[in-house]
Amino acid sequence: MSFPRSAQLLSGVLATAGVLHFAKPKPFDGIVPQQLPGSARTWTYLSGVAELGCAAAVANPRTRRWGGLLTAGLFVAVFPANVQMAWDYRRKPLPQRAIAYGRLPLQLPLIAWALRVRSTATK
Known about the structure:
Helix content: over 70%
Shape: globular
Low-confidence stretches: none
Number of strands: 0
Order of helices and strands: HHHHHH
Number of domains: 1
Protein name: Membrane protein
Structural class: mainly alpha
Radius of gyration: 15 Å
């Protein structure tokens, strides 16, 4: 099975984040935009499931094409949570603000990474 290093790393990042949504959900609950219907915990768990599913899809060369595309979409979909975090942290100490604000432009390289990994899929 072909498993390029970049796909392996992306799959690991997604799997780790997905597991954290279940193991330590409270920080994720806090950045769920209040405009979303239902409970924040439901959204935390749903996004954890999505990350685990993307991790599995990226790991398999036969599903990597769709996995990379879905992962890029996931990174776009969670952007509102990053905006919410930046807004909520605007009065926090500088190190916390820097992390929150740093997440915003980080989404673009993550999306590009997912699309590059997509290109390593077997046809």
